[in-house]
Structure formats: structure tokens, C-alpha cells
Batch of 2 targets.
Target 1
Amino acid sequence: MLEIRDLHAAVGGKAILKGLNLTVKPGEVHAIMGPNGSGKSTLANVLAGRDNYEITGGEALFEGKSLADLEPEERAQLGLFLAFQYPVEIPGVSNMEFLKAALEATRKAQGKEEWDSVTLLRKAREACKQVNLDAQFLKRGVNEGFSGGEKKRNEIMQMLLMEPKLALLDETDSGLDIDALQTVARGVNSLRGPERGIVLVTHYQRLLDYIVPDHVHVLSNGRIIKSGGKELALELEDKGYGWLTGEEGESA
Amino acid sequence: MSSQAELDKVIRSEYEAGFTTLVESDTLPPGLNEDIIRVISAKKEEPEWMLEWRLEAYRHWQEMPEPGWAHLNYPPVDYNSISYYSAPKSMEDRPQSLDEVDPELLETYKKLGIPLHEQEMLAGVAVDMVFDSVSVATTFKAKLAEAGVIFCSISEAIREHPELVRKYLGTVVPKGDNFFAGLNSAVFTDGSFVYIPKGVRCPMELSTYFRINEANTGQFERTLIIADEGSYVSYLEGCTAPQRDENQLHAAVVELVALPGAEIKYSTVQNWYPGDENGKGGIFNFVTKRGVAHDNAKISWTQVETGSAITWKYPSVVLRGDNSVGEFYSVALTRHAQQADTGTKMIHLGKNTKSTIVSKGISAGRSNNSYRGLVRMGPRAENARNFTQCDSLLLGDTCGAHTFPYIESKHPSATIEHEATTSKVSDDQLFLCRQRGIDPEKAISMIVNGFCKEVFKELPMEFAVEAGKLLEVSLEGAVG
């Protein structure tokens, strides 16, 4: 479903991704790991289409379509979801209102049946429950005054409702305590299925104790330098990134 | 597409109320002198005292300088090139019911989304419409009369209720108050009059739609609302004007009198033609709105301002009585080359008086949006309190937002709080929405609506919906 070939990308004119290859098939969970500054978050943002993140070479195909040709909302409507590393606040726009707009836009584009407000509210409450968020959060402004952990759980709640084909999670584990991490992991695991691809971008191995990946890739200097199974993550836990990147002082 | 390009696209929407109605008019030649004022007064069959009042105002106005302190830039207005009276001709014989109203006029209101016949049937909004200078039709009079409420055009009130008009007209905004109020006092042609008797809660929201139609016509409406002791009224005012290349002048005066224990809630949705992208055309809106709150009375202004090329408007409250309350909730949106200098004055005279100011300014395009507000605590204003919150939102980087707060306190026990923020619709907010599948136009309108939520919740339900739609139309490109 996701086919990345020799992808080059720049952020504000600076080359970050330098020939990245990655294939994600339906049903697979991939973890992208790597030291800070290796281009992990850049990859997630390039795929989602953030401003100033430019594809300068190669290609990224999602469901056979070139992402470079699609606006961010079109990618989302195709079923690509990004859980943000730093979810932004939108004061005065309630979570519920936001979800309604998002679900209307995506479900319509995907030919899914539209949810009436009663169904939407019921589904939204269920999703909140799954990630341990009080249903009151639906009435509050999007991320407005939420704690760091609440923002991350809010992202997962949105993901559960939107049922994307491909979920990209950008350092969703950062800043979470162990309870919240387990909650988030349960949410993600509940989405695992034969039709869905999941890409976890993370610096640390600990998330992978709870969401066990099928494939682990190590990103360094804009390229994937090593790929393996879940045991690769454990190896990185032991040895750090230095033995792969050839640099001193990097450790997980 | 870059965010700037997105913004440019969405703020370049067309003016939706920009159509002209072809009705034969009875219009005075341009120019202003005592004879013109005599003609206006005669056409309106006014008593002698009213004519004298107008002439005094005119003589005083001639001595007054035009104010230049606002953060506004516009070519000088030639007050002799304006026609000061225009009435649709078919109105010579006033219609006795809606059926007799010129169908073209009714069509105009339909385009504006005010289906009168429907409104009559639907739950209770009485509409006194001002088409150019003459009230066209007033509905629900009977029901209001039952409650003792007087709701009619100011011209009718001058004829039918001279004792009330004489007692209160010019007591809140004196005829020499300022240049534009002076001009209005001399030439005002119509407007609304409301009187709510003691202890009466007005059984419905009162609503007026003003509309400038005739080209080159100034509109000078004058509104006077008197809420007698312990009474309550909610008054809604909506404004649009057709699209023309030349500028049109609008200088209105609104006076509110809230007697002891009374409450007046005054809501405005203003969508006068703002001029085109390059600042050509549009309404010059110079408005004086003020209320006096006596003991335990409350006056609340809520305004949503999206139109006019130039806006000069400061709805104010004089908190004369002890324990009186003043509120000002405002959303002002400017785009293209619009300029707005708007805010409020809260003059605390009585003890334990309390005022709240919430102002939301949104600027886009090359527009300039200024908040100007005065909070004055008088020497008797023991324990007076004010809270001011003043937020500006910028769309793009070619517009301006300015804040000019004035604070004067002559009593040591007074409390004044002021909070101000300036923010931009960030690329991050826009990206979050788009990543969830929401198109940028919808996203921006959602973000801006969220920013205005505190003000919208003060509006009566039907107006809140309208205001939300208006923002959407003002911001969205193709949606119609």
C-alpha cells in the first residue's frame, strides 16, 4: 500500500532524506528508528504533505498514487493518517466539531456511509473510553489546555474513529508515562488488521514492547541503513545506534 | 499550495448582497443647507420643535471639525455631493399591510434571506425594515401593543409619541456630541423607536434590517430605545448594502436608555458593502452608539462587523447608576483594503458598577483592524470593576492589527484588568485540519469561528447562526 523508492526530500531547502526505500504491505506494522536528526519525523511529514517539506527526487506511492501530486487533505481522504508529535491547539473549535468535519470529509471521499450525529457521538465516546479520555474532552477545544499525554491520547482517539488505511505515528510515545504508553499501545493494537498498515516512528525501543512490529528499520542520515525483525529493536536497545552509524556517543 | 496562496484564495470571495433593486425613487438633489433640512422635516410631517432641533444641530455641526484621530485613512467626504433623502416612490401612499408592499422590495428582502411572510408565521421576530429612508413594513405590531410595547419607525414616533421622543432624544448622544452625530441630528431620515413599559419583558426579539439602495444616498438612521424600570428587551440589527463603485456614507446614531433595573441587549450584524479587492467603493460607516444604564440596569452590546470600507464605531455604556452593568462583545473582520477603528467606552460613574469588554479582531488581505477602547472610573465609582480581553487574529502577513486601550481611574478602589493577545492562523493548525481531510477553506472558517466563539455565544440563536454563516461567506471563496 505504501511504496517508497529512492525518496529524496528537503525541508526548507535543506536535504534531509537522501534515497530512502520502504515498502509497507497491508497488515504490516513497521517501526522506523534512528538517532535524532536522522530524518524520521521528516519522513512522516513528507508523506502527510506538510508545507515546506518537499520531495526532490524519487517517489512515494500510496495505494498506487503518487503522493507528490496530492494535497494534504486528499492524502487524508485516501486514508493516510498522521498522529502528530506535537499536536497543535485550535481554541474554540470543539473536538466534536472537528471530528465531525474530519469524518464527513473522509468518509464521503472513501464512499463510506455517513454517520448521523447520534452515531458519531456514540462512536466518539467509545473511542474516548478506549484511550482513557473522559467524554468531556469531546466538548473542549481541540487540544486546548490538554496535558502532553492527553494530546497524544486525543490523536489516537481521532485515529480510532477515522479508521485509516495507513497510520503514521510520529513519536507518539515521547513524553508519555508508562500507563499512558500502555493505553496508547492498546489503542494502536486494536487497529491492527489485515487491511491496515501502521508505521511507528520512534526513538526508543520501549513502545515496541507493547506494539510489536513486523519490521524494524534504522534510519541514519536520510537513508535506511539496516532492516530486520523485532529483534533488531532489542539489539539497538543494547548497543545504541553507534555500531550502525559508525558514530561515537549515540545511545538509545 | 502555500498557506499564503490558500489564504489569498479564500479571502477573495464575492460580496453576496451586491445587487441593486430597481424601484422608482423620490430623491432630493445632492447638497446640504437649511432648506434641505426643512424639506426633510416637511416630508416627514414633523412638528415644529423637531425642525428647530434639526436646525440647531445643523448650525452647530457647521462649526465642528471632522475628527482625525482614528487609525483610518480615507479621502475627504464632500458633504454637498450627497443626497440626504431618498424614499421609494411607491411608498407615497404607505402600505397598510405587507400585501400592499412593492413586490420588488419584498424580492430584495428575500435575496437577503428575510422571507417576511415566513417570518410572520415562524416564531416571533418582529421586523421593522428601513429601505433607504422610509420604514417599509412593521409586523407583529398588534402582539407588541398588547404588551404595551411601542415598536415603530422614529418618524412615526415623532408624530405619535412626541412626549417620549422629546423627553429622551439627544439625552444620550447630544446633537453636538461629535461631528457625525451632529450631522445625523440635522438630517436623520428614519430609524427605529422602541419603548418597553415598566416591568414588561418584551415578548419577542425586535429586529431591524437596514439597507442602503439608492446610489449616492447617505443613510442617517436614528434609533432610540427606552427600557422603562425593570423591563427587558433584546434588539437585533442587521445591515447590508448593494455593491457600487462609489463610496456611500452612513452616519447613524443609536441611543439606549435603561432606566432602573432594566436590561437592554443590542445585537448587530453589519455586512455593508466593503469595497472591492483594491479598495474601490464601499460604505463609510461612522456610527455613534451609546447607552445610559441607571441603577441596577444592564446594557449589553454585541456586534459582528464584517462590512464597510471604513468603520468608525464605539458602542458605549455610561454606567450612571449604582450596580449598573455594561458589556461589549465584538467581532470585527476586515479583508481586502478595509479599515476598521472600533471598540467601546465604558464610563463608570456609579458605585459597584461592572463592565466587560471582549473584542475579537480578524484581519486579512491588506486590511487594518484597530481596537480602541476607553475605560474610565469616575470619582464616585467605588468598587467599580472592568475586565477587558482584546484578541487579534491575523490571516496572512500583509494585514495589520492594532490595539489602543485608554484607561483612566479616579477612584482607588476600582479594579481594571486588561488582557490582549495577537495570533496568526498558524500553518500548524491549518495542517492539522488538512491532515484530517478538511479542505483549507472549511478549516480557516472553522478556526476563525472558534476564535470568535466567546462573542457568538452572546448573540441570540438565529443571529449566531447568521453570524457564523457571514464569516464563512466572507472567508470562503467559491461557497455561495
Target 2
Amino acid sequence: MADSQFYLRYYVGHTGKYGHEFLEFEFRPDGEMRYRNNSNYKNDTEIRKKAYVSQAVLDELKRIIEDAEIMKEDDNNWPMPDRVGKQELEIKMNGEHICFNTTKLGSVLQVQQSKDPDGLRIFYYLVQDLKCFVFSLISAHFKIQPIQK
Amino acid sequence: MSDHGDGPEHMEEEQEPQQQRIRSTVVAGAGKKKGRGFHEPEREEGDGNARYEALEPAGGSGPAKSVEGWVLFVTGLHEEAQEEDVAEAFADYGDVKNVYLNLDRQTGYVKGYALIEYATEKEAREAIKGLDGSELLGQTIHIYWAFVRGTSKGPRRGR
């Protein structure tokens, strides 16, 4: 199948008082899920986990992405990454490849006031759904509660 | 790592070989590219030699055990399904240790999937046999293993 090369990566982070703090996860074409979460607050160490998810999990992930229609969007008019932070979403699916970035979005109000509220809203909610998806998988498999960022 | 070697949940650590980020390997020959992210320099904390904890070494086939049990992945759930509906259906096959039923962040309705955990592989296997393709609130649901003993060589077949 053409979409056997499905790939997804999401990163959110910033550099501040506690160094480079970030959350990153990715799903590779063979089902390998990688998860990294680094917070230096109170000398926390970086968490790195990996596991293989089944094809059904990848298929559901693809369904969520397709339903959101994020591949039709463009990050041209989204707020640039800045000192507040950076988000990056990379998806390769059905012969298309996106790698969008923007700043950390604090609220839906910030989305509405941007130059591309419709596109950014799709990103904003998709990212929350993806994090939710990954946190459930990580927490079910490893019994750790990921830090919500 | 300090948790290395203690307890039954002893986690295996692997030294990753020098590995390029998938971004640069998978992309070759790909279709349309779009987004500012392609113009960014790679971050220094790339995956390079990162050590990832995994519960067991990759390899083999079939379902993989999670820390405290066996996790199933349910799809096709009705958007108004409640946790109790799901837990009740799965309770017929064993003691359900955990249910993760996530909501769509925009609409507040059920996103359509759930994770179900049993303590034993037998219970989980029975639940797949008994519930895959059955109806819950008028919708056909499908049940799969959530985690598998993957190999790192290419996409796998089947579910």
C-alpha cells in the first residue's frame, strides 16, 4: 500500500529557566512509537520510552489525521515559533508530507485572533487529540503519567 | 539509569545505533512537501544516540505485554458511548483493569477508540474472540492488540 510510509512526529518545547524542556513523540512506518519528555524542573530527568503499536493503532491515528484534514492546511500565516516556545508537527501520509511549525498556543482565543484562525484551529485541536492518544498509550503500556504540556 | 535491574518490571535498555532521523531517510522520493518546518535546522537533541527504555526487545510476532497486563485497542465506538458501556461489554471476559476512553477535544464526543487492559493474556484473547465485529450501541466495534512484538524491519503485515 502507498501509505505504508506513514510517519508522524510532534514536538513542543521551549528553552528557559530550566533549560530545554520539551515533549516529543513519533510513530514510524513499522509501528515503532517513540516518546521523549524532558523537564529539568526539580532536576527531573528525561523520559524516553519506545514500544511497537499494532497496525490497528496506526490506522486509527491515520483516521484521526484524515478527519482533521490537516494535510490541506498550510502554516504560512501561523504565528512563528518564538521565545514562548515552538510546536512542530510532521506527517507523511498518502504521498504528502507536511512539517508545520508555530509557537505554543495558550488558548483558543489566540487561535481566533491569528491570521489563519480556521487552519490554526484544526492544528490546535488535532494536537490535543494526538497528545491524548499518545498519553493513553504510554500510560497504559508503561504505567507512567506523562507530564501534560 | 537507577531503575535498571530491580524488580520484576526490569526494563530493557537498548543502545541505539547511529541513526539518522527518519525525516531525512523516509522523505527521499516523497510527494508534495509543505510547511516551514522543512526549512528549520535540525535540533541538536536529535535521536542520534538516544537510549530508549522498552519493555522487551523488538522481535518476534504477536501481542506484547504491557507493564501490568495486556492492552487491547478498540475502534468503531459510538460517539456517545460511556465508559460504563465499554467496561460492561468487556467485563464478560475477565476483570477489566483499566479503560481509557478519550474524547474529541473540540466536540466533547467520544473520539471512537478505547484502550482496555486485562491482567492476563487469556482474558484479552477471549475478549477479542468474543467482541471483535460485535455491536455496541448499534455500531460495529473492532478489537485488536494495542502493542505488538515489533521488528525494526519494514512495515508489518496484518493486525
